[in-house]
From TrEMBL:
HAMAP family: P5C_reductase. SUPFAM superfamilies: 6-phosphogluconate dehydrogenase C-terminal domain-like (SSF48179), NAD(P)-binding Rossmann-fold domains (SSF51735). Catalyzes the reduction of 1-pyrroline-5-carboxylate (PCA) to L-proline. Residues 157-261 form the Pyrroline-5-carboxylate reductase dimerisation domain. Keywords: Amino-acid biosynthesis, Cytoplasm, NADP, Oxidoreductase, Proline biosynthesis. NADPH binds at residue 44. This is Pyrroline-5-carboxylate reductase. Pathway: Amino-acid biosynthesis; L-proline biosynthesis; L-proline from L-glutamate 5-semialdehyde: step 1/1. The lineage of its organism: Bacteria, Pseudomonadati, Pseudomonadota, Gammaproteobacteria, Alteromonadales. Belongs to the pyrroline-5-carboxylate reductase family. It is found in: Cytoplasm.
Amino acid sequence: MASAIIRGLIKHGHRSAHILVCAPSQRTRSRLVQDFNVRVHSDNSAAVAFADIIILAVKPFIVPLVCDELRPLLGQVNNGRSEQKLLISIAAGLTHASISDKLPQNVQLVCAMPNLPTAIGKGLTGLFVPGHLDRQAVDDAEQLMRAVGDTVWLEDEQQMASIVATAGSSPAYFFLFLEAMEKAAIAQGLPAKTASKAVLQSAMGAVSMAMASKEGLANLRHQVTSPKGTTEQAVLAFQHGDLDALVARAMDSAARRAKELALG
Ligand SMILES: NC(=O)C1=CN([C@@H]2O[C@H](COP(=O)(O)OP(=O)(O)OC[C@H]3O[C@@H](n4cnc5c(N)ncnc54)[C@H](OP(=O)(O)O)[C@@H]3O)[C@@H](O)[C@H]2O)C=CC1
Ligand SMILES: O=C(O)[C@@H]1CCC=N1
């Protein structure tokens, strides 16, 4: 996910020389240099010396370990003034309190849930801060994530699990559905390239149209569904399979997992 954000930031005009990535493995660091020409370091503390904004993009269970490494440096006071750093956590499930408890008080923390399309500037990031955070930190987090897509601010942290299910994880559901369509089209006899093009262009057209339209998704669906026509048969098959219930079950599972991750 860090690569997706970096790709999106560079695409948006951020300079690679202004980005430092810390990763333990030489393999990942070499890949990042090769792909993005960013600065790299094996020691997480290098991030504190280098950056005003630090994105925690490690697996949720590693976040406490990284906070332990950063805490002494983040707490340092220079010339009688403690520096204000902004940390953005993208770890699924982890609450603001569970991370900020591990950080010095001078650190501003924003919880974010981006998704993979940040890599092409078309991400969606859910953001949450408790009421007492500095305006500047809120603006900086918003500006950074806006560089890689759109943002939504959550008033209630409980909603973060739903954003994980709706945005963080959801590109995978769409890929899965498109894969299933490709397989079915090939099974019906289309060449693989034709199947792929037909599926992806149709998906892009449908999403673009839905985003541009004020009519609502159900209305657009009805426009495609001629009475006694072909679409009706496919829609009926989805409904007989109880697509709504299946999607709700899948999204509930993702949200439940986000809540489990919060418990560690
Ligand atoms: N994948 C996605 O679409 C999304 C993921 N997220 C969140 O992003 C986070 C990362 O997920 P994802 O990118 O999928 O996971 P990956 O396993 O792909 O990436 C995790 C990265 O963390 C690095 N890492 C491991 N240990 C440390 C450490 N001690 N200090 C610094 N870096 C370390 C790894 O480096 P190395 O390769 O060198 O081991 C690796 O590059 C998770 O918290 C996830 O919930 C949020 C939204 C979407
Ligand atoms: O699957 C995961 O746990 C991460 C969080 C959201 C998307 N990927």
